[in-house]
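Bumping my old thread because nobody answered last time. Still need a sequence for this structure:
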């Protein structure tokens, strides 16, 4: 994956620690890890982000499902010690009728079991869209999880903010990015924010649906996402694309974002001129924006 990242112009990447829809995992290959670390140094790649499988549910009601989450996270964190300085991102899970408060308690309980004071990996709770009974849909829920983790482990836990998820959960990063970040800072603390999943959304604000879209093709819109990349409180964080793309699409998005990052005063129109076919026109972006704030049936 490191070679692919370099080929498309990326300076980091995200990978799944094992089958994202299951739990199977390859045997650990220490020689392969050593080769990657040498390649990473040669090409000046930032440490990649490890992502846990989607099948984890640390707050499940069924004991066997929770045990799978504990065993998987312990194994993943043990493997990541071979990549010191890594971050390990996971979805907090769904309480499935137990209530958010009980879900939060169980997630914190699992974190207290799997994290070790001496580990070199930071575990990241991902912000969620609020689909179904997902926990982590609000900054307050994330804070409640953090508050129940043992103080001696606090330095090993952070947050990954997904732009699609926070938008779908009701935080208006398009119309009031500064306000959203101030709320996050008051509630959780910006020092806890370690990574950004940069995605547009197919859904209007507050839809609680979690459907990613290519940058500039969704309801958040390209101008807002460029403001995220260049925001003083965010610009030094690693950004990871999870847009529905093939490699050439990711390469174009990376190039676009790099131009915006290097020229923060540029607008979306100057980064990608209208009519190129790569992003919506100004009129299309205005229509998407109107959908995002005026379609109560979808909220």
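Sorry it took so long. Here it is:
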């Amino acid at each position: 994956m490191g070679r692919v990242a370099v080929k498309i112009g990326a300076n980091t990447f995200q990978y799944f620690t094992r089958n994202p829809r299951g739990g199977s995992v390859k045997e650990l290959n220490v020689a392969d890890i050593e080769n990657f670390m040498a390649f990473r140094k040669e090409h000046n790649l930032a440490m990649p982000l490890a992502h846990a499988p989607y099948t984890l549910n640390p707050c499940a009601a069924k004991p066997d499902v929770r045990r799978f989450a504990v065993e998987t996270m312990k194994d993943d964190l043990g493997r990541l010690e071979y990549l010191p300085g890594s971050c390990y991102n996971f979805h907090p899970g769904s309480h499935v009728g137990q209530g958010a408060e009980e879900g939060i308690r169980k997630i914190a309980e699992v974190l207290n079991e799997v994290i070790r004071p001496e580990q070199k990996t930071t575990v990241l709770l991902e912000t969620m869209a609020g689909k179904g009974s997902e926990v982590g849909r609000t900054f307050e829920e994330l804070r409640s999880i953090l508050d129940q983790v043992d103080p001696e482990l606090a330095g090993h836990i952070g947050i990954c903010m997904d732009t699609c998820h926070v938008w779908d959960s009701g935080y208006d990063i398009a119309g009031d990015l500064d306000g959203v970040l101030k709320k996050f800072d008051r509630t959780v603390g910006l020092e806890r924010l370690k990574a950004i999943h940069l995605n547009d959304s197919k859904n209007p604000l507050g839809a609680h649906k979690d459907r990613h879209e290519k940058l500039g093709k969704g309801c958040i819109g390209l101008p807002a996402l460029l403001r995220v990349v260049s925001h003083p409180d965010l610009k030094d964080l690693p950004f990871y694309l999870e847009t529905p793309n093939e490699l050439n699409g990711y390469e174009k998005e990376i190039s676009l974002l790099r131009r915006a990052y290097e020229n923060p005063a540029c607008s979306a129109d100057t980064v990608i001129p209208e009519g190129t076919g790569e992003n919506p026109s100004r009129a299309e972006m205005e229509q998407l924006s109107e959908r995002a704030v005026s379609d109560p049936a979808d909220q």
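The chain has one domain: 2-298. Let me know if any region looks off to you.
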